[in-house]
From TrEMBL:
The keyword Cell membrane does not apply. GO terms for biological process: D-alanine catabolic process. Keywords: Oxidoreductase. GO terms for molecular function: D-amino-acid dehydrogenase activity. This is Amino acid dehydrogenase. Residues 2-412 form the FAD dependent oxidoreductase domain. The keyword Phosphoprotein does not apply. One of its GO terms (cellular component) is plasma membrane. The lineage of its organism: Bacteria, Pseudomonadati, Pseudomonadota, Betaproteobacteria, Burkholderiales. Belongs to the DadA oxidoreductase family.
Amino acid sequence: MDVIVIGGGIGGIATAYQLRAAGHRVCVIERHATVAQGATYGHGGAVLPSPLDVWFGPTFMGTRRANKTGILFKPGFDAATREFAKKLALLRDPEAFTAQYARLHPLVELSRQAIADIDGLFEFDYEQRTGLLHVFRHERELAQAAPAIELLRRFQVPHRVLTPKECVAAEPSVPDDPPFAGGVLLETERTANCPLFTKLLKHILEEGGVQFRLGREAASIRLDGERAAVELAPLAPAGTERKRSREVEVVAADAIVVAAGTGTPALLARVNRRLPLHPLRVHTLTAPIAYEEHAPHITVVDSVKRIAMTRVNQRLRVAGGAVLQSAAKAAKPLPGDLTRRALALLGQGTHDWIPGAAKVSAARPWDGVRLFSSDGLPVVGATSHARLFVNAAHGPAGWGLACGSAKVIADLVSGVTPDIPADTLAALSIDRF
Ligand SMILES: Cc1cc2nc3c(=O)[nH]c(=O)nc-3n(C[C@H](O)[C@H](O)[C@H](O)COP(=O)(O)OP(=O)(O)OC[C@H]3O[C@@H](n4cnc5c(N)ncnc54)[C@H](O)[C@@H]3O)c2cc1C
């Protein structure tokens, strides 16, 4: 079949890879001049999400105090944002959390397998490192993480619950003073460079005959019974900066996959499919290593504040500092004081857990928006139109989940039953809203 994938982030590129592997002819449409420029560019590094990493559950967003949760609330919520926060809060209940993570788990495992297959085939070097240490300041927080730790045990994810002394032994850059409650070491989980992985995969796709329409924006989707098509926004004629040509180009296909990150709801709204997804602005700091002896050799995660500190060669990448605000405001740049507060959370996280490791004053800040659903799961699957598919809203775990969700999409497009349980497929489906 001829399949169009809209979006050149990890979601779109992984989808194109699985579609090509399934024998389809694929065209990727991306509005930027190259791939991995959206949320994929700013990833924090964790490859696969564990029950401790997902952005829902008993330890997530317990209060509105940013210094406790790592999440900033921008005043002036609209009703939709209040509703989003309220629904997400329901998953703080341990039973609800456990049931929801259990639905997601098969997708995590499918991704693990898909990434292992890609690693086995191409032996890419995308700056992989092994080991994540989740740390907890207070006993109460560690107790709240008990359902997640129980899920690690149930799904046989290799892990060790550590005393503070054992944490310091596992990662000597973590100070034993001030005191903290302990940690969970995920020795075999990996971090890596997601944009690099995306670009390496793109190269393989180009060699495999996948067509890339870069620098082109999908303006709308056209659907009828027989064929589907994407209308491309007109290009500005050469030599003109602003004026656009009136010529509309339409690319037809047998199927379309929307993997357009935060651009997904707008594209689907044009075919009357409204998704209650919420954008969250998230920050990173990339700082040079200050003192080698203080730099962590495994990734350290402030588990409650969801701040991940990952070493990438001679740099430290700190990711987190999310800002919850009304959806309409998320597309606009944040006011300076909020940006400063979000970045200060990241600086504080570094100071608390790996002091002296990085030159935070010389750090390069970045921020990007990622889409969340209020039930914590992505939107992956078919739609009510047989030729339209969606792969989006992976929230904090789009890097890891991309390769598995891409496989689900490729199976659905090919008319094959995906290799995940039916309740997982239903929980990811667009029809659940
Ligand atoms: C700070 C930060 C830290 C993160 N840390 C992690 C982590 O540690 N682990 C993890 O697994 N995930 C992490 N994530 C999440 C992960 O990065 C995202 O879930 C993932 O990159 C989303 O990929 P995507 O392809 O869906 O979206 P994107 O990367 O945003 O790609 C979507 C693409 O679609 C294009 N597009 C949109 N609309 C159109 C249109 N109309 N026409 C043409 N092109 C269009 C955009 O230009 C963009 O390139 C993090 C995200 C952020 C922001």
